[in-house]
Amino acid sequence: LVCAHTYYLRASLRMLVKYFSPPIVKSDTEEVSDEIRQRQEAVFLNVHMVLKAILDSVPMSSTILMPLLHDLFPYIGKPVFVQECFVRNLLQITTYLPNGRQKILELITDRMLKLDVRAPRQNIQESEGDEEDMEEDIVFDIDIEQDLTRDLDNRDGSIYDKKCSDKPMTHREANILDVCMQLTLTYISNVCYSKGECDWEATKKLYREMLLVFDRLILPTHASCHVQFILFYLCSTKTPICEGFIDYLWKKVQNPNTESVFRQAAVGYIGSLLARAMFVPVSTVTACLDLMCQWVHLYLDSTSEDVVNADVNHHGPFYCVCQAIFYVFVFRSKEIFETKKGHKWAESLNFQRIVTSRLNPLRICLPVIVKTFSSITRMHQLAFCDTIIERNKRCILPVTSNGLGSSSVVTTLDSYFPFDPYLLNRSGRFIIPLYREYQGCIEEDQELSNDEDDFLPDESPSTVEPQSVSLGKTPTDFLHYGISPGFKHVQDIT
């Protein structure tokens, strides 16, 4: 019928796509039986056979299909099983419509981002924490000594205490997102490791497509917590993929024609990936720190003489690069100093000039990062930040005009660390084994504990308490949660 009368093409495709959303009326809390799943799988199989036949017979059908997939995507309020079925079938379409894969991935990512921003990190932690507290109250009392022992055990670098499980998330949007992320990461794994080992050509093609999705959707989204881990997982497949992604981000940072907010976001991704990814070798970390420090020193050469006061509005990318340097160095310093020439290399970064410059990055960056960086650099005699930190506390933050006659206080950066701890249960099994938690040495922890009064909030009315998605209820939560030609690797410091 469709081949003979293309007039019916849109109606036929619309009817087929509607079958991807099963008419399930049960709520999310009710488990869908295996019988229903098997029956739906049989329906989906027949639909895909017909859809593939139409796509093969009528070339123009793909241009009509894509808008229909967008229009018929289930509403966020639909049950999780309906969302799961639709996403699974979209991914199945890519097996016989490879030219439409990038648009389908973009459609799925767009829907997951909408779920992600509706499931803030704090809300997920509160929802999951409330349920855990209820279970603990019913089953047993909390054993404080056991908790302390676990905290000490975590110092050896073991993967943090959160265990991956198939348990549904309590938070509704987070539960749907978890299912969609699991499907997407499973799909990526099947594409990249179709033959038991990494298929380089298939991985490269998928990476290029996902990079377009990242540039259009993920990078401009500030409040997302989990969707960006698709790129995190993809970077783990091959070292050139990871280095290519970092190079792509660094070019955005260097480009003065790129909007400042995107340059700052790109720096956040670089810093977060270098700090958190277990698969990033120390040689790549040192190469990236070299590049970023060189850029900072060149920036100081060109601007520091004209600077009167530190100002985030005018020098936002600079402060973000400085914060990324401090952040990465805090997380990876232990590995760096364990290498043969690690200390000598660290001295070559000239941290002292950065922290004593008139742009004063220690005033602008997050206090917990500044304090930890200060402790590590003091311990290894790389830079002495304490005097500057104390002076910054005594100084009144400069006031800049907003152009309307009023003034505003310049506070710390509105920091965003894209690869903060992954909270989703089922999809977490792809991420947790690749994820690094902060590992502090005993000497550093002692220095931080001696100065923990510095983490107390300033009660001065002229300052604003900094906000960051990386900070939990206390500043120390931050730490415990804690190649393309563009990157020339420095000589191996080992």
Keywords:
494 residues, mainly alpha, two-stranded antiparallel sheet, 2 strands, disordered C terminus
Describe the structure.
There is one protein chain. It is built from 22 helices and two strands. The protein has 494 residues and is mostly helical. The chain has two domains: 6-96, no CATH class; 159-480. The chain has a two-stranded antiparallel ribbon with strand order 1-2. β1 and β2 (407-409) form a beta hairpin. The model is unreliable at 134-162, 401-409 and 451-494 (pLDDT under 50).
State the major sheet: 2 strands, antiparallel
Radius of gyration, in Å, reads 25 Å
Q: Portion of residues in helices? A: 55-70%
**SSE pattern, N- to C-terminal:** HHHHHHHHHHHHHHHHHHHEEHHH
Q: Give, in spatial order, the strands making up the sheet with the most strands.
A: 1-2
Q: From the helix content, strand content and strand pairing, which structural class follows? A: mainly alpha
Strand segment tally = 2
Inertia-based shape: elongated
Residue-averaged pLDDT, rounded? Answer: 81
In percent terms, what proportion of residues is strand? under 5%
Tally of contiguous helical segments: 22
Uncertain runs: 134-162, 401-409, 451-494
Distance between the termini: 69 Å
Please state the oligomeric state of the protein chains shown: single chain
- As for the number of domains, it is 2
